[in-house]
Specification:
There is one protein chain. The chain has a six-stranded antiparallel beta sheet, with no helix packed on it. It has a five-stranded antiparallel beta sheet with strand order 9-8-11-6-13, with no helix packed on it. The protein has a two-stranded antiparallel sheet with strand order 3-4. The longest helix has 5 residues. It has two helices and 13 strands, in the order E-E-E-E-H-E-E-E-E-E-E-E-E-E-H. By secondary structure, the protein is mostly beta strands. The chain has one domain: Jelly Rolls (Sandwich).
Length: about 170
């Protein structure tokens, strides 16, 4: 496993070891000891999201929950946004997730993603999901949109379609 820093403070890019043989491949997707030793939070909840190609989800996050996100099937374009009330608010980084690539998203950051193919998005959370504590910003918020999403007429949930713009 290789863990690299990114342009966003605290956001980490994880490249997992993939072992191949005649049967296929094997990927260890989580090892608590390895992640905790790199100052990542302990995780208490796992979630999967199945998305058709052209589904765009987010920008979602909260101030207490860290996430370890990955794509276990398909391809996903992930954007992570600094949503802390600091001069860096709105800064973002972009990653293409495929099996074997993970991104650690610390508390205070939001994430959004576009399913480039029919995909399965997996995320571990350091706190139990609490909708009341989450923030949502529109996927096309001008303060956060450093590059247009590469999709015309994305498939959106009502929450993402009607989410607020940052102030």
């Amino acid at each position: 496993m290789k863990i690299a820093t990114t342009s966003l403070e605290g956001v980490l890019l994880v490249t997992l070891d993939i072992f191949y043989d005649k049967r296929g491949k094997f990927i260890e997707t989580y090892n608590e000891q390895a992640y905790i030793s790199r100052a990542m939070k302990k995780f208490v909840q796992d979630d999967l999201s199945y998305s058709k190609a052209r589904v765009l989800r987010g920008i979602h996050g909260d101030s207490i929950n860290a996430k370890l996100v990955s794509c276990v099937h398909g391809r996903i374009l992930l954007r992570v946004y600094d949503c802390r009330y600091r001069p860096t608010f709105g800064d973002s980084a972009e990653f293409e997730l495929v099996p074997g690539i993970q991104v650690y998203v610390p508390p205070g950051f939001g994430n959004a993603y576009l399913a480039l193919d029919d995909s399965i998005f997996c995320y571990k959370q350091s706190a139990y999901y609490d909708r009341a504590k989450q923030f949502t910003y529109r996927y096309d918020d001008p303060r956060m949109l450093q590059a247009p999403w590469p999709v015309v007429n994305p498939i959106l949930s009502e929450r993402d379609d009607k989410g607020p713009f940052s102030e």
